[in-house]
Amino acid sequence: MTAPAQVCAAVSQDELDRIARDMDLRFTVVDNQPGKCPDGAGGCFLSEIELRLPERLPQRFASEDLPIYFSLVARLQRVDSDLFEADLVNGDLHVLRPKRGARLEGGRTYRIKLWSAGHFYSAYYPMPNFYLAPAGLGARVIAATRPVVDPETGLETLPFVGPMTNEAKLATGSADDATTWRTPERAYALYARNGALAKPDVAILPTPATVKRLQGAPLDLRGGVRLRLAGADRGLLQTALNRLVASGVGGLDRGPELRIDVAPGAGLAAESYRIAATTAGIRIRAADAAGAGHALRSLAQQVAFEEGRLRPIEIADAPRLPFRGLHVDVARNFHSKAEILLLLEQMANYKLNRLHLHLGDDEGWRLEIKTLPELAQVGGFRCHDPSETRCLQPQLGAGPDGNGPVNGYYSQADYLEILGAATVRGIEVIPSFDMPGHSRAAIRSMEARYRRLSAAGDRAGAELYRLVEPTDKTRYRSIQNYDDNTLNVCLDSTYRFVDTVVGELATLHRAAGVPLKTYHIGADETAGAWSESPACKTLMASSGQEPKQLGAMFIEKVAASLAAKDIEVAGWSDGLGHTDAKKMPRAVQSNIWGSLFGGGVAEAHDHANRGWRTVISVPNVTYLDSPYAPDPMERGYDWPSRDSDTFKAFAFMPENLAANASVMQDLQSRGTRIDDKTPLRAGRRIEGLQGQIWSETVRSDDQVEYMLFPRLIALAERAWHKGDWEPAYTPGAAYAFGDGKVNQAALLQDWRRFASRMGVHQAFLDDAGIDYRLAPPGGRIEAGMLHANSEFPGTPIEYREGGGAWRSYTGPVAVKDAVELRTRSPNGRRASRAVPLGQ
Fold first, then answer.
1. N or C, which end of the chain is more exposed by having fewer CB within 10 Å?
2. How far is CA 762 from CA 196, 554, 629, 792, 825, in A?
3. pLDDT band for position 2 (50/70/90)?
4. Catalytic positions (predicted)?
5. Span 349-386, pLDDT tens digits
6. Global pTM value
């Protein structure tokens, strides 16, 4: 629903500014198991807004002057307050206002209890930037609700969110939920169990297939190498060569010979390579430029580790999976071109070869389409404009002014630069605008276009790209609480819109010299849409279809249109699964996002058995915007997972999905069983693995890096290299937690090798300017002695007593006062968040 009409404010703009500056507001999660939920709903939580008005209010102040807009990413069920009420505007945007006749007093504190569906397990689930927007005045953010960056950690904090310290009330959402918070004591036990080896001999990640040390003196590369290149375009290797020079090689025109031979059909598979480094020089052999680039980046890692003096070594390597991807959502919250370029370089370093760029969703459209300028000019921004003529509604705590890093879009020149940077790194860009659901940004932008052209008298032009039908009386709510986010799949103008967008994308790719090979349509649907659409009723009357079949019809039509343009269709597995395989093109990419414990295994095998390119994107482990650990101070959406740490990503088995039940617990931290009820047929396989970062809770570029690294490196390890502890796929096999079918000792030994290398790679990430997550230390106190450990070996640990100065921890030390612990980056520039021990 939309907010009721407001009378003009009684206060002036200056007075409103002072109220927004001086009032205090606190949001506290009170209980994730509050007992009986409103209306008998299953699963809810209780929160409280504490509102303190300034001591001195303007004499003309009236209750109408205090509409507070805020984002709540949960369905609000009930408001308990004698003086306040709240309404849903749309999506997660709500408005809290005094009830009619309420008299508010300066200096008073008011408490409003909110009952909402689901659970808030993190202090980063509440969204910032509550704002005041009385009619007739400019909207103003309540200053107390702005996010603040901690200068020690560089991490965003939300000072207006109350502390979450009661584990009994806040850690679980049901009686059978076994989740516990990762306290320092529990982290200590975990890190001690996982362990780590001493400094490694080889530091290359992902782990090469085979490595052999050779005899001979080290090869001193600090003075440079003489490059000899045969069979490859140097332009396609230049960024990898730059990486080699940055690793400590003094140049490319003098010194020992570096010979690179690229010869297709020379007995090497696609992307594979061989390195032989002897006292005489270095030779690289590869079947293609991609393999040569991988070789150079592996070499660069080892050269940097050995500080420019490379001991003789022989490496043979090849990828496990042909598709190794990263999905980056820039639609919910925007992320800069500079960040995408930085990520492309790290993707190349860790041998990822697909960037799935999510450019359009409900909350934003992030690419300039010149035929349809409103898409970026309106859909690229969120602000307080109820008409949505200038911008979209300020969802996800965006604030009212349309500024800030969550807003913006890529110009076509920006996109061409991204394509160019990806191409020279051997990475394919897969653009995506979600449809037919999750399309609110497109819909509202095209409505703004409709109003502009209609006002100019061009009614025919206005209708040309309209995506909704004004006479459609269908009522629905998407999972994200929108009632207007789904394209009308029965309108010709919808397909004209899709063709126009894809046409401009294809033109941009051609201009960059790389054809648009794959387009991801999303394929998300919205239950209940289209049932009352006149256009759909006419279509259904002639075709005999039902509303629930229309989504599949849309996907099939768009897929056929893409295939006619020689573009492969990609989509999320649930929407694709509703289609008739006979009506789909032969080439289809399906991103499997069903939960491992909820049918995802059968879905993955079913889609692979259809002959589709099947890319594992299951939320349990590949959704990298989920919290690293079950801790209220870790950010991220936790519906996919509450503990997606680096070890969990490392232990994932993408080609034997059911086997993950042996080592992975479900969302409630319970062991369970997975049966392979839909086996892979002979000759079918899993084609790829993709990590996802969705950006609902990720509001800045440094938060992107925190959520991705280091666990993306572990996922890249599993995409490139198969662990020798992974059991071979057996059709129809069943696995259960702790059943011993996965060799736990071998898994831990492999992890220790990986962790020792990650201790080295943290310094590499420092050098690249990556704000990766520093896991807080584990710790315990025994007999007055502090013992501490870290996730990766060599990570500096610091401690302090009683709030005093930080000291380096080098081994067990006597302590007497309250202790806090933190880790520090190898370069000393950043610290993890501090964790209290034994409090």
1. N
2. 15, 46, 19, 9, 7
3. very low
4. 525
5. 999 999 999 999 999 999 999 999 999 999 999 999 99
6. 0.97
